Amino acid sequence: MSTMKKILIVEDDQFILDLNKRQLENAGYEILTAENGEKALQELDKSVNLILLDILLPKKGGLEILKDIKSNESVKNIPVILLTNLGQESIIKQAFELGASGYLIKSSITPSDVVHQVKEFLNND
Question: What confidence tens digit (pLDDT) does each residue in 38-90 have?
C-alpha cells in the first residue's frame, strides 16, 4: 500500500480551511494546516507533497510565501496551487511567474473541484 500523500493547506478563513480539509481527508489525503505564512513555512519540513495556498494571509502574504518556497532548494519542487478570491489577471500572471503550479479562484469552484485538481497534480508524480 502506498503511503498517504500530505497536503499543506494555508488558509486563514477557518470555514474554508475546515471544508477543504474534510473533503481532502475523505479523498484519502493527510492534511496539515497553517493559518498564516509563518506557520506555513514551519510546516514545510514535514515531507509535504502539495501546498494549497491562499494569497491574503496575516503576517506574510501568499505570494511572498510562494517566493520563499521556490527559492528554498529543499522544498522548491513541491507543487503550489494558489486558492484565493483574487482573480485579477496581473496577480495570476505574477503567481505563475513566481512558480505556482495552479491558480484556483474560490468563488468559482467547489471543494470537490479542489479535490479533483489536487488529484490531477499528485497523479503526475
Answer: 899 889 877 899 999 999 999 899 999 999 999 999 999 999 999 999 999 99
At 46 the pLDDT is 78
- Is residue 48, in this structure, part of any structural domain at all? yes
Indicate which CATH number applies to the domain containing 117: 3.40.50.2300
- 125 alpha-carbon distance from chain centroid: 17
Domain contains 57: yes
Dihedral sign from CA coordinates of 15, 31, 36, 48: negative
Residue with cell string 491562499: 54
Neighbours of 57 (CB within 10 A): 24
| Any domain includes 1 | no
The reply to whether the predicted model has a pTM over 0.90 is: yes
